[in-house]
Design brief:
Layout (H helix, E strand, L loop, with lengths): L1 H32 L6 H27 L3 H33 L4 H23 L4 E2 L8 E3 L4 E3 H23 L1 H11 L11 H26 L2 E2 L3 H16 L4 H21 L5 H15 L14
Antiparallel strand pairs: 1-4, 2-3
Membrane topology: Multi-pass membrane protein
Pfam family, one: BPD_transp_2
Keywords: Amino-acid transport, Cell inner membrane, Cell membrane, Membrane, Transmembrane, Transmembrane helix, Transport
Amino acid sequence: MLESLIQNVLNALQWGSYYSLIALGYCLVYGVLLLINFAHGDIFMVGAFIGLGVATFFLGNLGPEFGLSGPVVLALTIPLTMILTAAVGVTLERIAYRPLRRKGAHRLYVVITALMCGLVLENGNLAILGASRRSFPQLIPTQVYDFGLFSVTNVKIAVILAAILVFIFLQFVVTKTKMGMAMRAISWDKFAIPLMGIPVDSIIVFTFILGSGFAGLAGVLFAMSYPVLEPYMGAMVGWKAFIAAVVGGIGDIRGAFAGGFLLGFVEIMVVAVFPSTMRDLISFTILLVILTWKPTGLFGMAKTTKI
C-alpha cells in the first residue's frame, strides 16, 4: 500500500511538472497583457515537434560525421528547441496580437484570435507533416533507481527538477530584476508605462520569449517521457494547464506552479482509485469545488478598479 502511494506521488510530480511548465507561460502572458493565450498549448506541441526535428537532424546528419552521442544531442536539442519555439511565440505576437493591441481592440477579439492561432498551428502541422504519429528518438538510456519502497527513472527526476528550476528562475526574474519590475508595471497600468520611457513592445516580446521558450522545454521533456507525437497533442494538455493556472490564481507565478502540481496529483490519485475513464470527470469536479470555495484561485487576489 505504501509502495503504491509513494509511486503514485512520484508519477503525480512528473505529470504535474508538465502542467506547471505550460501554466507558467499562461501566467506570464496574462500577468503582462491580461491576455489568455489559448494558443500556448499548441506552442507546446510545436516545441515537441521542433525538438523532434532538431534531434533527428543531429542524429542523422551530424551524429555519424562528428560522433555525437545521445546526451550530447540532447544538450544541443534543448536550447535550440527553446530558441526556435520562442521565435514561434514571438511571431504569433507580432503578426496576430500586436496589430489588435495597437488598434485598441476589445480583449474578446484577442482571445478569439488566440484560439484561431492555435487552430492554425494544429492544422498547419497536420498539413505539413501529415496525420501519422511520430516517434521521438531515445537520446539517453533510461536508468531506473530502486529505493526499496519505490523506483524512479532518470527522466522522471529530470522533468521534476526542470519544473522546479524554471519556477525559481521566473520568480527571480519577475521579482528581482528591472525587466520583471517593468513586466509588473505594465500589468498594473499599461497606459502610464510608455510615459516613463519603458519600451512596452520590448517587454511584451521578452514575455513571449520566456513563456514560449519554456513551453518548448516542456515539449521536449514530454516527448522524452511519452515519445509518440501527433498534431493535436497540445490541445487537451494546454486546456488543462490553463485550468491549473486559474485554480492556482492566474497571473501569479506561485499559483501557476502550485496549480499544475495540484492538477497532476488529483488526476493521478483519481486514476489510482477509480477507472481511468473517470479521471477528467472527477478531477475537474474537484477543481470546480476549489474555485467555488475560492474564486480567485489559491494564490490569486481580487482586484478592484477605480473609476
